[in-house]
Amino acid sequence: MVYYFKSSCGQYLIYMGKDKMENEALIKYGLPEDCWFHVEDLSSAHVYLRLKPGQTLDDIPPDAVLGCSTLVKANSIKGCKMSSVCVIYTRWKNLHKTASMVAGAVGFHRPENVRRIQVEKNNSIVNTLNKTKEERFPDLQKEQRDREKEIALVNKERRRVEAKARKLAEVEEAKRKEELSYDRIHSEDQMSSTLDFEATADSAAAEEYEDDFF
Question: What is the pTM of this model?
Answer without folding.
Answer: 0.77
